Amino acid sequence: MNLFEPLQPPGAPPLGSSGHALQAGAMLEDFEVTQVLGVTRSGVLYLATHVLEHNTVAIKEYLPSSIATRNAAGQIELNDPSHEEAFRRGLQSFVGEALTLSQFSHPHLLHVSCVWEANGTAYRAMPYLAGTTLLAQRSGGQEPATQAQLRALLDGLLDALGTLNGAGLAHGRVAPGNIFMLEGEQPVLLGFDAVQQAVLSESPEAHADAYADPAKLQQTAADDLHAVAAVLHFAISGRWSPDEPGMAQRYAPLADELARLKDSASALGYDPEFLSAIDAALALAPADRPRSVPEFRTLFEPKPLNPPMAKLTGATTAGVKASRAAKRPLPQPTPSEYPLNSSESVLALLAKFDRDPANEDPDIEPFENPSVPTLTEEAEPSLPPMRASLFDAMDAGDSLPHDGVGYGRPTYTPMPSAPVNPWRRLAPALGFGLLVLACVGALGWVLTS
């Protein structure tokens, strides 16, 4: 229920007759009324003090001014006996709402500490809140809310609605006039405001908890989220018009609202993603709006720039290690003792065949190649002097060596002749003779016939 809108200034006479509200000093159980905070359509709000604990509370009295008033004895009586049914429905809704709110002790939900009946009506005690409603705060000509203030408002309202939804309830009256802003800019979602609906309705079941109707719970919860987005839009634009029942309202994009606000909004530094999320939650088609509190929060979560990398499993890690181990550097070939493509080196190697291994020079350092001997008589006295070619040696009359090196002339061995078949030579002649005989025989047969 809206406890603070509209409110009368403190100390001002309440709406209605002078006897409509209790006077200061009146006792309500253990509470002493100190002043009237305001009057609403469904009751009167008092500031009271507990006489034993000396703490200050706000007390709400059920008193629908349209059908009831207070008599000289302080009792509530009807203006017309025909209003009895409407008064009873409102009374049951008032008590049911108070009992429902008493279940929750949430920083962003109105808490009811106790409820009782007296003076022909009902009362409920609540903590006294210092602050004002969001409607009065934004309509007072203040600057648009900053993104930090919007975020605090959003988180507080979603936490309150999530708590209600978890208990199988919905609110149904999320509006700037039903959101009380504490001095620390923290929102408190007030009551369900179902009492006035019960009073004005002609249905005998109107006193039933509309916020707990299973048939309408899911739709009411979705409407609450749409109302939260509308409240954020109002906190920026300053424009509020309640939705008509059964009619979707089109909200101007926040980019257009910021262009209208110009200088006051240009320095607030709204993130484009944050404003786009509000616009998305205010989509005209209900199917395009979030249907639950987690879906609503997802709209305002930052989007990752890059997808997270998948974690390597044990098998994948082992495969990576195996592939790294397989890619080892190949062993380098051992450098040759003598340079390649050198005729002197080849001949020097051939000269070492069939010889005992030479003793290594102890003065040679490790990895130092020994000097290659030159092919002279002084370096290799056992080899003949080197000639320019074998033909030069033959012209000089020198004999070719026949040692293991292989410079001697090889022995010629003729190939054995293959046996000759005599019929191989006679076969063509015999074939030709048979052909001639066949031709002569054929000619004779033609002539004789």
In short:
It contains 13 helices and 11 strands.
Structural class comes to alpha+beta
CATH superfamily of the domain at 27-299: Transferase(Phosphotransferase) domain 1
Strand content: 5-15%
| Contiguous uncertain segments of 5+ residues | 1-18, 338-342, 376-380
Radius of gyration: 56 Å
**Overall pLDDT score:** 77
User: Would you identify the CATH architecture of the domain at 27-299?
Assistant: Orthogonal Bundle
DSSP E strands, number: 11
Distance between the termini: 143 Å
Description:
With 449 residues, the chain is α+β, with helices and mostly antiparallel strands. The protein has a domain at 27-299: Transferase(Phosphotransferase), domain 1 (Orthogonal Bundle), CATH 1.10.510.10. The protein has helices at 84-101, 134-139, 147-166, 195-200, 217-237, 254-261, 263-266, 272-281, 293-299, 314-326, 343-351, 390-395, 422-448; strands at 27-28, 31-39, 43-50, 56-62, 68-70, 76-78, 114-118, 121-127, 131-133, 179-182, 187-189.
Keywords:
13 helices; Transferase(Phosphotransferase), domain 1; six-stranded antiparallel beta sheet; alpha+beta; about 450 residues; single chain; three-stranded antiparallel beta sheet; rod-shaped; disordered N terminus
